[in-house]
Amino acid sequence: xxxxxxxxxxxxxxxxxxxxxxxxxxxxxxxxxxxxxxxxxxxxxxxxxxxxxxxxxxxxxxxxxxxxxxxxxxxxxxxxxxxxxxxxxxxxxxxxxxxxxxxxxxxxxxxxxxxxxxxxxxxxxxxxxxxxxxxxxxxxxxxxxxxxxxxxxxxxxxxxxxxxxxxxxxxxxxxxxxxxxxxxxxxxxxxxxxxxxxxxxxxxxxxxxxxxxxxxxxxxxxxxxxxxxxxxxxxxxxxxxxxxxxxxxxxxxxxxxxxxxxxxxxxxx
Amino acid sequence: xxxxxxxxxxxxxxxxxxxxxxxxxxxxxxxxxxxxxxxxxxxxxxxxxxxxxxxxxxxxxxxxxxxxxxxxxxxxxxxxxxxxxxxxxxxxxxxxxxxxxxxxxxxxxxxxxxxxxxxxxxxxxxxxxxxxxxxxxxxxxxxxxxxxxxxxxxxxxxxxxxxxxxxxxxxxxxxxxxxxxxxxxxxxxxxxxxxxxxxxxxxxxxxxxxxxxxxxxxxxxxxxxxxxxxxxxxxxxxxxxxxxxxxxxxxxxxxxxxxxxxxxxxxxxxxxxxxxxxxxxxxxxxxxxxxxxxxxxxxxxxxxxxxx
Lengths: 269, 308
Description:
The complex is a heterodimer of chains A (269) and B (308). Chain A has 269 residues and is mainly α. The longest helix of chain A has 32 residues. Chain A contains 15 helices and no strands. The longest helix of chain B is centred in the first third of the chain and has 31 residues. Chain B contains 16 helices and no strands. In chain B, α5 packs parallel to α10, α8 packs parallel to α14 and α10 runs antiparallel to α13. The chains are: A mainly alpha (269), B mainly alpha (308). Chain B: Its main location: membrane. Chain B: Belongs to the binding-protein-dependent transport system permease family.
């Protein structure tokens, strides 16, 4: 097989894999009256923007909440996991190995169970249906991952660099802030990207902890849409397209960080 | 000024230098407190829920009587238990089998480094990055009985349309198909990076010995990839056991529990009905944790062994 044939096969396979994504975009432009057309319209030739108009009219507050929750989760996750990663990688605390083990196990706990525990606690504290509560819950998805990424990355920072800062009279915190953090930019980007994406995509915590709140994220916006008007699939799919924008941007702008993040937990070389 | 400041700060720093442990734990403290407050405590609350007899009233007031393992007995006797167990096993097993096989085939294909291969491989990540509700609702519409594009494709090749989401005999298959689609990218990326670690000299030697492509895969690639494969499968297993979103959004575990797994059953008991049964819901959740942690421990052991 020569290279050109392989490229051809690769394109066909990718097209098959991405067909559902294409279909989502196609349906988002389809007119209500054509939605149950037989055969289905394969191209949005006589498309409509009704769906997107509905998004602008109805879904903007949901998108705003998701953006806020996503950014909050990023800040909380980085603030918690970067110092911990530094400590585990360079300061060698007694019991650090046990903590790494706990973090690995924490990643495996099903979200639905965390959600139930959080629900019981939030109900008692009266913080159900709040964006802050959602940030806190969403961060539990990303913090263990964040610590593991920071630990792995910071282990690779040469000790000479840190010792040089110490000789210059910098304390541990100063060294962390002025030397370690700046050279860990890649790890910060990777952790932030995933923390944002997971918070943005979260449905489990949103539906259990924020199901009746005044500020709900976009995942619930779509969920209510599916529940309420089963007919307006162009509006549902248009919302889905908008909700996919962060993932798409991420893939275009930060591809290498994404691949690094996917393999980080699984394979160590 | 700066020098004076540095001089006066020096004595304060001295004890830190004497006990580096202090600094190490100061940096860890936020995460440790966080883990106790937002991991351990919710898990403890969940365990507590499963050991008490809760009603909506006592859930709010917090004075539910201790009932031992009653909730666990309740769910074991429940008619949903064995079907949910079976669905969890089938959902996880079939998803993994296809995700892994397809992911492996694609990884081997993309490892051949043809023109555009890096770009196409990146595009394969899209399903994994999309919010699950986006994928689940797209699949719901594609699998719609009357107007879905899947049934249209079946009709056009002469196969009878299927009631994917509304028939009890197809609902589980439908959610498995959507889940396989979502899981392929993860398998592809991890197995691909495993393939990259195999030195190309080994392939060259095999090619010199006259091994065909098929032989090279089974005799060289597959054995060398076994540790990475085991880790991919175990991690996939832990992830798949806890899948909730896709099933709940596509079928709500129905019709008549035909696609209910432990994850959706637990949610349904706690949140999906008019009269919440928090105790049994938490009990199902704890069974799920035990299953996940068993395979999680296996995964960590595997990974440790690979590193050393």
